[in-house]
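Obj: model holo form, ligand = nicotinamide-adenine-dinucleotide.
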Amino acid sequence: MSLNKEIYTDKKITPTATYRNFPMVPRVIYGKGSFDQLGDILLPRRKNSDAPVIFLVDDVFEDGELESRIPSIFNDLILYIDADEEPKTHQVDALVDEIRSRFSEAPSGIVGIGGGTLLDLAKAVAVMYANKGSAAKYQGWDLVQKPSLYHAGIPTISGTGAEVSRTTVLMGPEMKLGINSDYTTFDQVVLDPDLTRGVPKEQWFYTGMDCYIHCVESLNGTFLNAFSQSYGEKAMDLCKEVFLTELEPCESREKLMMASWHGGMSIAYSQVGIAHAMSYGLSYVLGTRHGLGNCLVFQHLEAYYPKGVERFQQMMEKNDIQLPNRICTGLREEELEKMCRVSLGMTPLWENALGPQWRDKINSDILKEIYLKI
Ligand code: NAD
Ligand code: ZN
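Output (holo C-alpha cells):
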C-alpha cells in the first residue's frame, strides 16, 4: 500500500511516496425529496426494455410509503433484503446467480436503497455480475479485473460513508474484508435526508458514531494529509452539532447525512484506526454490527484517543444512550485469540493509528485486556 506522507521543509515539499489516484462518485443529487428524481436519473442508463434495473432494498421499507415511489418499470426487479445481518460473500454470489438465472440480458444497473448493508450489497453485486467466481476471491485490494455494472446508492441511514467509499465490506469464509477497487465506487448517489426519518434512535446513534469515529481515527492518524483533514474536520464539526446541540429533526438529518459523506471522504485518503481494527475482530467472532461494535471498543480507547473518547461519553450522555455490556465475558480463550488475530491482521489501520513501528506498540495481550472490558 502506498503512503501519502510528505516531509515539509522550510522551502520545499519532498514527496516520499507515490500518491493514490482514487475515484470519486461522479454524480450526486442532494435534497429533501430528491429520491423522486430517481426515475429520470435512471432513464438514460436503461439499455432496452429487456435489460432491467435491479433494486436491492432494505426490507424495512417493504409495504411502506417508499415502495410506491421506487421507479420500477418494464421487467425491473425489486428484491427486499433483511439488513439484520451484515453482508456476506455467499449472499452476494447467490444474488448474482439469481439475477443471471432470471434475465437473459445483463441488467441496466443495480440500485441499493438502505444503510451500509444494502449499499455494500449493491456495490458487490454490480462488481460481481461482471467478474467471474465468488466474491470471496476479490476481498482485498485492487483484485477486480472488469468494470462493474452501473450502480447507484441511496442511503436511508447516515454515518458509514459507504455511499462515497471505494469499498464494499463483506464477511467471507475466511475474513471480514472489503472488495477495495476503483470499480466499487457508485456511479450515482442520491442523498435525500427525508429517507432517514424512520431510523430508530439507538441505530441512529450507533451508525452516526461510525462517522464520528471515522473522523477521530482519520484526524489522529499518521496518514493524515490536508485533503483528509479538510473533510474530517468538517465532518467532526457536523457530528458535534448533531450529537451535542439541539437541532430541529430535519436539520439534524441533513447535517448527519453530510457528515457521513465528508467522513467517508476523509478516510478515503487516510484510514481508520484502532476502534475499527478491534471492531472487525468483534464482528468476526460475535457478529456484532459495525456501528455498535465501534462504539463498544471506542469507549475503552481513552489511552489512544483521549479527547475523542471524552467527547464520545458526552454524546452518549446527551442522547441518553446505554451501551450493552458484558459482551466478551465468558468468551473462550480461542475465541479471544481469534478476535485478536483478525484485528491485528488489519495492517493499514494499525499503521495509520500507531505508525510504521506499530507492531512494537500493540499485541494480543493489550487487545485482550481491552476486549475483556467490553
Ligand atoms: P445497516 O444498513 O446495517 O442498517 C441498520 C439497521 O437500520 C437495519 O435494521 C436497517 O433495517 C435499519 N434501517 C436503515 N434505514 C432505516 C430507515 N430509514 N428507517 C428504519 N430503519 C432503517 O446500517 P449501517 O450502520 O448504515 O451499515 C452497517 C454496514 O455498513 C456494515 O455491514 C458495515 O460493514 C458497512 N460499512 C461499510 C462501509 C463502506 O465504506 N463500504 C463503511 C462503514 C460500514
Ligand atoms: Zn466505520
